[in-house]
Specification:
Keywords: Ribonucleoprotein, Ribosomal protein. The chain is of the alpha+beta class. It has one domain: Roll (Ribosomal Protein L24e, Chain: T). A hairpin with a 7-residue loop joins strand 1 and strand 2. It is elongated. The chain starts with 12 loop residues before the first strand and ends with a helix.
Length: about 80
């Protein structure tokens, strides 16, 4: 499963571990990605989306129909 949100586009960030010894090593900041199933009345079926926590809040705020309409307009396979 790729670490990318289908709604917000959140993806891993990169940076450094910086311990007391100041020896920096590369690290990866992963977003909180989850698979979530929603019933979409306009499509008449369920869709499974790969979402970050902020993407789930966006769907709660705007509604699944509006978000799915935007995803289909962008050409995302649902």
């Amino acid at each position: 499963m790729s670490a990318r949100c289908q709604v917000t586009g959140a993806q891993p960030g990169f940076g450094n571990n910086k311990p007391w010894s100041k020896k920096r090593t590369r690290r990866r900041f992963d977003p909180n990605i989850q698979k979530k199933r929603y019933w979409v009345p306009s499509l008449g079926r369920t869709v499974t989306l790969t979402l970050s926590a902020r993407g789930i809040k966006t769907i709660d705020r705007r509604g699944i129909d509006a978000v799915c309409h935007d995803l289909i307009a962008k050409g995302v396979k649902i």
